[in-house]
Amino acid sequence: MNRLAMLTAGVTLAAGVLSVPQAVAAAEAAADVLSVDFARGTGEFRGGATGTLYGFGDDGAPTQALINGAHITNTSQKAPYGTQHPSGDAIKVEDGFFRKHGEDMYIYVQDYYPDWSYHGGVRPGDTRTYNQADGTYTATPNGIWDYLEVVEFVTEAVATTSSRPEDYVFIPFNEPDGGNWYADWGTLKDTFLADWTATYDKIQQVYARHGLGHARIGGPGDTRWQPERSADFLGYAKAGGVLPDVFIWHELGIDNLRTFRSHYAGYRALEKRLGLPPIHVNITEWGMLRDMGTPGQLVQWLSIMEDLKIDGQTAYWAYAGNLSDNSARTNAANAGWWMFKWYGDLAGSRTVAVTPPALNTVDTLQGIAAVDKRNRRATVLYGGGDSPVTLRLSGLDRDVFGKRVDIEVREITLTGAEGVAGAPPVVKVLDGVRLDRGTIDLDVPTYDRYAAYQVVITPEQDRTPVAGAVWSTAVEAEDTRLTAATVYDQDPLSGGGWKFLASGSRDVGSFNRPASRAEWTVTVPRTGRYRFQVIGAAPGVPGRHALFVDDANPVIVQYTADLALTSVQRWQYRGSSEVTVPLTAGTHTLSLRAGLDGATVLPNSDITLDKFLLTDVTDGEPTAYPASTLRYFGGAHVTYDTSRARGHGQIRGKRERADAYVHAWETGYHDVGLDYRSTGRTDVDVTVNGRAIATVSAPRAGAWRSTVRLHLSQGINEIEIRSKRGVLLQQLTTTRVAAADAAAVTIEGEDTIRHGAVAVTTHAGASGSNASGGKSIGYVGSGAANTFEVVRRPGFDRPGAYDIAVTYANAELGGRHDYNPQVIDRRLDVTETGGGSAYGYFRYTYAWNSFLEKTVPITLTTAGGSLTFGNPQAYAPDIDKITIAPAVLGQPVTVPRR
């Protein structure tokens, strides 16, 4: 039986309690119990635990959809004009950060220095004179401490160039107890305390002279909880009137899941002993490599911080611009992103008491639960255990939820740092369960402890919740029939947490011989087309495998390169590759092989394999986003008070809206359907990724389905729904329509008109490159003359809104760091002759012959103006091809719905 069938088959209901067949119940006798008491509140949802350190690179890296969907409220970035990293300047990324959910922009002032540890690890003296106008300096003393001049320059930049200076938090010192200037507390305590006062006062002076009021300052910023240093620091700061506005330390390491709460308790006890009011806490670095992108790990950390009502930021272990390895490719979600998104969905709710099997224990079942009374929605997020789980839910208020409730359980499993995770599937439902005494027991078999689950409880809705709407199944690579390959154990506790985890804690390697193969026998329910996804790691170079179906009809599986600059990334920084194959109903053997002929290997086929997934995409993989799961703003909310519209989102007026974050497996056209009711003639405005793109209409009162064919970007797309006259939205559905992609025009880079130094590169077949046609163009930019041009042609020869999907490579690094690749986001400008313009920043792709795709939206205002691509200031990315597509095809269609 496949996993989905196992999760949904054989459910019976008795007295509002879920039970399972006797045989399954016996197998699950040792289930972990997570108790949730919805009647015992623990405070307003804080939502600050998914902050990020250097999670932002440059504008658009990550994309706005990823930022907004992840609901990031706080981040730490480098100081303005800082040289510690090539990207991540706070001023340059603040617009995207503050656009929707951003609240607090922290900056590491010491990141003005280029090296780690800062200034060679030695406290600077007075050997320089800084020019406060531009930050340059001469090697001459001037009687002022050098770092104090840096602090002034950085603070001045925020005060004068930021649009939100009041929302910044300055961190003068980062890990002063480590290798940064003040490690020896016995001899350097007085120096640090005096330096704290000097920097604190200087920051306040700069804000005062610009009339900005009090500047918020965070510290001390130690590498770990340091009771002695903290006591000395707080006592001194209280006496001198220089207390931090945010108290900061770091929680790094595996055992911190056990000790975190005791550290926090020690801090609060210290405050009381010193007679201090509570100071807000932000753990500006938390977690290890093994936690990033792994929902079952992330939920353990998030549950602690949300329980304590403090903020936290994921540690920076790889590179800037990918939310600390919690996003994939240029615009896609990995499993970690969905965990962030689920957590952000709790905004506006109140958390309630959760009792796990054990607190303060490493790698165990933990959870977060909350009630949103406005939208009449209760949510439980949980994961981290490797046993079946019984949720013991109590205290559900019948005044809020009524006599019967609907329950939907969604699952997200580990896909690796670069592996794409689609919209989390519904794996279990309870439809119209009677709410006896506000108590329900819910049993959910657990796949592995790296997975996480979202349980949404609502009053009974007018729609019928469905599990397994799209057939899908999965298998661990180590559980397939292997030839000439080796299974490796990947202990999550080894290496002190310095490793990226493998699903099931094992993977398959040494897949590097002509005979290497992994064979999976699987039964599919019907004849159609199926997406085969491989989770694996291509170490620093693109590579290839061949997929055989029943020992015939091989299809090339093309992998893009994954991060492999250090030993802890190589073979472990997993991505994904997807191909679509036709299958007839019945049983098949899918054989993934290192070679086509059994005698030679395909280029760079030495790729580790973690997991395979197979999904039916015959019907375009229709995916529903119910109103009960959307985010609402401006007064919009879910209502259960309107006949035939129970569980619909009520949206009315200019300020009200609903936000949906929809996933597209590939760039191209999708039918976006809106199911809704109206009380009269109405219009619904649809905004996609920040562009008002379409309006659908209903002619009179009734139930309707409006469909608009939209061009969506691969990955996450933000869709905003508004209605001035009012609408009761039941759900939004996306369906892939691949045949419509014929409306888009693709131009290979080598077929464009090249100017200046732009040149064609041919990629040898042995390189494993995924360049279309084996060619790309480079040396674009770094001068106004170095451009390529595309002449208008049918398909984009009219004014209007278009998407330009750019397939590109960018492996530029700048500077050095002990463990972080210093990636540079390259910019590409697009200019329409006589018309509009657009630009995009293009993130790191790990190799110059490994190509990813990013979409640049543009509004063309002429019918014939050529499109010119370049960057006069610096090099643009190398270009494989571009695809230009109208943002909308045809006219929206509205039909009555029963």
UniProtKB/TrEMBL annotation:
Residue ranges of every copy of the CBM6 domain listed in the record: 473-615, 745-885
Recorded GO MF terms: carbohydrate binding
Signal peptide residue numbers: 1-25
PROSITE patterns in alphabetical order: CBM6
Keyword terms of this UniProt record: Signal
Highest taxon above the source species: Bacteria
Official protein name in the record: CBM6 domain-containing protein
